[in-house]
Fold:
Amino acid sequence: MTTRAGFIALIGEPNAGKSTLLNRMVGAKVSIVTHKVQTTRARIRGVAMEGQSQLIFVDTPGLFQPRRRLDRAMVAAAWGGAADADIVVLLIEAHRGLTEGVGRILDGLAEFPQGRRIVLAINKIDRVEAPALLALTRAMNERLAFERTFLISAERGHGVEDLRRWLADALPEGPWLYPEDQIADLPMRMIAAEMTREKLTLRLHQELPYQLTVETESWQDRKDGSARIDQIIYVLRDGHKGIVLGHKGETIKAVSQAARAEIAEFLGRPVHLFLQVKVRENWMDEAARYDEMGLDFRDGSA
Structure:
């Protein structure tokens, strides 16, 4: 029986729904999903099986105009993920349409070598009427000759199976690249750190979600089947530390409880999670932090 396997890059503007689509395709939460933009930092690969095809998704950071070193490294990672993939899926929001940012992405895709397989997925279709969808589909395909266009709702699942089946059939023939039961190639330590960072992002709202990072310092599998996980939350300034801790430690306690529950559910066993908050003024300029996030520190240089 013929098997297929290949890499599929999900690209688009921040908040277009890439992480939601990845999680629905894979059937598990491997990429953090929040209402904040730019929450995905590393190129998280999710692995899904469809018949005899193995779909390896590269969930890239959102493409935007970079200003800081971290921004530049994230954008470089996104374009790198697209350039290396067998198939590129451009995800755009139906209700926002052909924005200036989408236009820049189309210009970048137009420079890809001929023959590169690029498809369009218009997401959040429940937010617009059919005539507007048709007009957007026409406008996008006039800008770039997409191989296929899919109308989907990643959150509700509409159209996702059609996209998944098409991708499965379009991948190159070859042996599977991961064990059949593996859903992500990220170390569990990083997935756990991302889950904690998501809870911080949701809890802190506009205060400092992009000025902190979470690192799993140690992981101990205990004899009783549980896991002890120690994580450090790095912030840029002393004032940020107080925000993360909250009044009488209420914020960090709530974050710890929510993250522990989600990590335990993901692992299918009890988890003991211990969080520390440390000030590290220059973490955004440390190569080791970029390595931890799967980004190339050199890509952030101006």
Summary: The first strand starts at residue 4 and ends at 12. Residues 188-300 form a domain with the GMP Synthetase; Chain A, domain 3 fold (CATH 3.30.300.20). The beta strands are 4-12, 44-50, 53-59, 87-93, 117-123, 149-151, 212-221, 227-235, 271-279. The radius of gyration is 20 Å.
